[in-house]
TrEMBL record:
Domain PpiC: 264-367
Bilayer-spanning residue ranges: 12-32
Species this chain originates from: Aromatoleum evansii
Protein name per its UniProtKB record: Periplasmic chaperone PpiD
Main location per the UniProt record: membrane
Coiled coil start-end: none
PROSITE patterns assigned: PPIC_PPIASE_2 (PS50198)
Family (UniProt): Belongs to the PpiD chaperone family.
Record flagged with keyword Cell inner membrane: yes
Matching Pfam families: Rotamase_3 (PF13616), SurA_N_3 (PF13624)
SUPFAM superfamilies the UniProt entry points to: FKBP-like, Triger factor/SurA peptide-binding domain-like
Keywords: Cell inner membrane, Cell membrane, Chaperone, Isomerase, Membrane, Rotamase, Transmembrane, Transmembrane helix
Membrane topology qualifier: Single-pass type II membrane protein
């Protein structure tokens, strides 16, 4: 009951996750028009996915991988082609859903959006939605409230599409039985490996092979223009340090706002609930009331048994295990009949049976905290902070104009504005226009201004840019390097190693496939087979490609053979010695336990099929050259 009265956690948790995991979107408009300049990574219908969107999504995925792996991750792995490909595929899928939602005019009502945002725990203060917390949390993600709300609305529209497809998934008990039988099937196999390393010595590159590759793939070895910059940040925090509040001003504020610093009465209580829904039948209500009356009679005879009886009889899962204890709460936290009963009792008193929409309650008030004013010394720090922010807010508008004018009028240096407003001049490492960041800010307008001719060749300050609500940044170029191709000599060894590995991988696959073909004809092949081991779909000890090959091979005649590429680039042939199929009865209890998992798998399959159908409706083209890692 208590959980139902106080919160709906599910929606809050989902939306909090949306805030913590950064979005891969650039706002609603970018779905339906060309993105920022640069090489487009993909097109979906007439909509383009820009390199800037891809770089941001890649950076966010890399950050998540670092966090999941404890921070120690090989940079080459994070920038590998499979990672980059998965990011662009995800962006394509998101764009497909967004276009479908727009085409079908799916909407998110403003009231729905407000309700979702208001339910996020991170935006709450003292049990209520706080606009200050909301704006601070959004700014911490480098967004304005308008950007966040636009992206959230877009995400909710796409969720409508995904949920509609997922909810349509249908599964029968016989399908689940066959699925479980397939998962539990066992096959005994031995393995003949063709590792890449075994063929490296056979690879002979032409003398000019590396040079030819370098000349044919010149864009892969180009480093974009980059620069180092110094910059200053101006926001309300910069003004706060210039503001002071006297004890007298704080005292006057305290006295003028006494009601704000009073603590309303709070009460702690415990209860026993006998459930009876608001729409329960008369017979169900009568039985619940009779049981509650019986419990109340026991408590009147021995009030000390309240906690014991609550643990045994209460049907409130949130409090029964604690002897019915609900802790302290004020007015407005509970449903009205419950609250009225609590505030009508004295400490230690037990109520009559109280009816609410949840059922019948027996309540005991265990403690009372009387209303009282918080002393000045206790709240002085809060008052001073509030008054400082009020004063800083007033000064901010005036000084923001000073900031903008100074960086423009004295454009050959940031020192004048730093001295005037007591700001710190900071410096960046080497940054590029696409995917670059000036400190914590990835603002596109700021980066474009820095890479403009006025800033690069003349060394002038860029005009003040509002990178987030209430935060202005100006910067100037300290050092600039134009775009250039990495010299062939620096990448020659890496190219040769890549070409040798590719050739050795091709040889391994050719030899492995030839061996598989020979074995399937009944011929023998040279090589050392591994010891026989048992594999099962439900417990994959082999890579997924190998599992698919082994269990996809016909087993009418044994031994049977299958082959698959290995993760290291080699090839493996598998000899299937025996097959053990387990029969599952139609009433096997495992079928019920598997039902939810199987329905999710079917829903995922249907959703993937839906995405494929969208790819047929909106032509998808991926620029593979733009997705490949850049050679350093």
């Amino acid at each position: 009951m208590l959980e139902s009265v106080r919160n709906n956690k599910r929606v809050a948790q989902i939306i909090l996750a949306l805030l913590i995991v950064p979005f891969a979107f650039f706002g609603l408009d970018s779905y339906f028009q060309d993105g920022p300049g640069g090489t487009d990574v993909a097109t979906v219908g007439k909509s383009k996915i820009s390199s800037a969107e891809f770089d941001q999504a890649l950076r966010e995925q890399q950050d998540r991988l670092r966090e999941s792996m404890g921070g120690e991750v090989d940079r080459a792995l994070l920038d590998s082609e499979p990672i980059r490909r998965s990011v662009v595929e995800n962006l394509v899928n998101q764009r497909l859903l967004a276009l479908h939602a727009a085409e079908n005019r799916l909407i998110v009502a403003p009231q729905q959006l407000q309700q979702v945002i208001a339910g996020v725990d991170a935006f709450q203060q003292d049990g209520r939605f706080s606009i200050e917390r909301y704006e601070a949390a959004v700014r911490a993600q480098g967004m304005t409230p308008a950007m966040f709300e636009s992206r959230l609305a877009q995400d909710l529209r796409m969720q409508q599409v995904a949920q509609a497809v997922g909810d349509s998934a249908f599964t029968s008990r016989e399908s689940i039985r066959r699925f479980l039988m397939a998962q539990l099937e066992e096959r005994k196999v031995s393995e003949l490996q063709f590792p890449v390393s075994s063929f490296a010595a056979e690879v002979k590159l032409a003398d000019d092979a590396a040079r030819q590759y370098y000349d044919a793939n010149g864009s892969r070895f180009e480093r974009p223009a980059r620069l180092r910059a110094e910059y200053v940040v101006f926001n309300q925090d910069a003004v706060l340090g210039q503001v002071s509040v006297s004890d007298e001003a704080a005292r006057k504020f305290y006295e003028a706002n006494a009601e704000r610093f009073s603590q309303p009465e709070e009460r702690s209580a415990r209860h026993i609930l006998i459930s009876a829904a608001a729409d329960a039948s008369a017979d169900e209500v009568a039985k619940a009331k009779e049981k509650a009356d019986g419990i109340l009679k026991q408590l009147r005879a021995d009030p000390k048994r309240f906690a014991e009886i609550a643990k045994a009889e209460s049907q409130d899962p949130g409090s029964a295990s604690r002897g019915g204890d609900l802790g302290f709460f004020g007015r407005g936290a509970m449903v009205k009949p419950f609250e009225d009963a609590v505030y009508g009792l004295g400490k230690g008193q037990i109520s009559e049976v109280v009816r609410s929409d949840f059922g019948f309650h027996i309540i005991e008030v265990t403690d009372i905290k009387a209303a009282h004013a918080r002393p000045f010394d206790e709240v002085k720090g809060e008052i001073v902070e509030e008054l400082k922010r009020q004063e800083a807010s007033k000064k901010f508008a005036e000084q923001a104009e000073v900031f903008s004018n100074t960086v423009y009028e004295q454009s050959d240096s940031l020192k004048p504005v730093a001295d005037a407003l007591k700001l710190e001049i900071r410096t960046t490492d080497w940054i590029e226009r696409v995917g670059g960041a000036v400190g914590d800010y990835t603002n596109e307008k700021l980066l474009n201004s820095l890479f403009a001719d006025e800033a690069v060749t003349k060394g002038r300050n860029v005009e003040a840019v509002e990178v987030s609500r209430g935060t202005l940044v100006s910067a100037r170029v300290v050092e600039h390097q134009p775009a250039q191709r990495t010299p062939f000599e620096q990448v020659k060894d890496a190219i040769e190693q890549q070409l040798k590995t590719e050739q050795a991988t091709k040889l391994a696959a050719e030899r492995g496939e030839a061996a598989l073909a020979a074995l399937q004809k009944g011929e023998s092949v040279a090589g050392e087979w591994s010891a026989v081991r048992t594999v099962q779909r439900a417990k994959p000890e082999l890579p997924q490609a190998a599992i698919s090959a082994v269990f996809g091979a016909p087993s009418t005649k044994l031994p049977a053979y299958a082959g698959a590429p290995t993760q290291g680039g080699g090839y493996s042939v598998f000899r299937i010695e025996s097959v053990n199929r387990i029969d599952i009865a139609k009433d096997d209890p495992r079928l019920k336990a598997l039902e939810g998992q199987y329905r999710r798998l079917v829903a995922e399959r249907d959703f993937n099929a839906f995405l494929e159908s969208l790819r047929g409706r909106y032509e998808v083209q991926i620029n593979t050259a733009a997705v490949r890692p850049q050679q350093q």
